[in-house]
Every structure is written in structure tokens, then in C-alpha cells.
Amino acid sequence: MTKDIRVPYVVSAHGLSDDDLTDLYEYPDISRPWIRANFVASLDGAATGATGTSSGLATTLDHRVLQLLRELADVVLVGASTARAENYAGARVTSAGAARRRTRGLAPVPPIAVVTGRADLDPNSRLLTQTSVPPIIFTTASAATTSKRNLADAGATVIELGADRIDTGDLLDALADLGLHRVICEGGPRLTGQLAVDHALDELCITTVPTIVGGTSPRITDSDRHAALMMACRHIIVDTDSSQLARWVR
Length: 250
Description:
Keywords: NADP, Oxidoreductase. By secondary structure, the protein is of the alpha/beta class.
């Protein structure tokens, strides 16, 4: 008897239009926050390259998909360490992209939402000085009052979640209260690991580049507990450089 095996849709990147990519990465119909994580990794599982950032691994198609995933999202969610290491600025959307977002009923530009227990972000960083929409800072009641006030004075929307740690359930509730259901999480490993072990990660989009990095680079998740979160592969895009872009969904 032949087993019923779900085979992912494998497609060549050659000739893929923006509409084709949109069809491949469209969100499902949802009434609550859907957490989609996006990462790039090497063949040996490294989440960063020699530079210590993910940009050392990214490819042209990976960057194109990253921009599309942001365009489809209500909000870009990121941990504070990644926001600092990658020198985050506000999301940028082309005029055509903003028009497509309006057609979908989305705001022209998605805000960046940073998860930080200590609110230890520089109010003079690009996150706050190079953005067209105010970032959202999810933090805690125990974070320094001065830090939270400085971020608010710099234009951020500061939201306290919990006394001294940010619980995943509280984070999801806050996103829902803000009407932010289509969530693209861009790391880092600690935030994504927390979402995975709490079974709040609905989807993983991962680009695997044909490079072995070695060294002590981190993985895409980092947690104190095992997640045991099973996913099914929806598609794999194979690029001309042999990199593979896969979409995994619970």
C-alpha cells in the first residue's frame, strides 16, 4: 500500500514574478495573530555569516522575499538584540507596494515592533530616527522608567506587558488588541525560540544558502526547552545559485 505523503510544491525561481511570489506567500484567512518567522541559514545551520549578522548570508532572492513578506504583514516583530545587531530602521515600502497594501486594507507601511524586557534601546538609533511610522516597544513594568520615557519621547509607542518578563500569551493578546494579525517575525533566536516552545509559531520561511560557515554562529532558535513543534512544507523555491527558500506551516 502506498503511503499518503504530502509532497511540497517545488518551483524554480527563474521567471517568478512578484504576483507569483505573492501567491506562494499569501497569508491564510485569520482572525487572530498569525506568527510567521523568516530566516536565512547556511547548510550547517548557522543563522549568521562571518560578519556576525544575517546579511552575510542573504541572497538577492532572499532579500526580495523579505521585502514581500514585510509588504504582506501588519507588523514586523523583532527582538531587541537583533534590532541592535542589525541596526534596524523603520520598514520601507515602495509607492507601488504601499498602494498594494491599501488595496488589502493594510496601513501603507508596517510598524516595527520590538520585544525587550529592559527597554534598553537607543532613542537616537535608526529605529526611531529613520522611520515613517512610530515603532512599537513591548517591554515590562520593571524596565527602567527613564528608558521607557526616553523611547516614548523619541516617538515610540511603549506598551508594558508583565512585571519582569514578556509572556507569549500577553504578547499575542497585545498584537490582537492592536489589530495586528499578520505578523512577520525576523528574530532573533531567543524570541523565535520562545514562540516555538510556546507553540505560538505558525509558520517558518527559511532560506538555506549553499554555504558551510563553521565557527560558533547561532542557530535560528535558542531556548531552554524543547519545542517539539511539527510543521509541513508548503513549497520550496530553488534558485539558480542552489539556494532553497522553503515555507513551513503548522
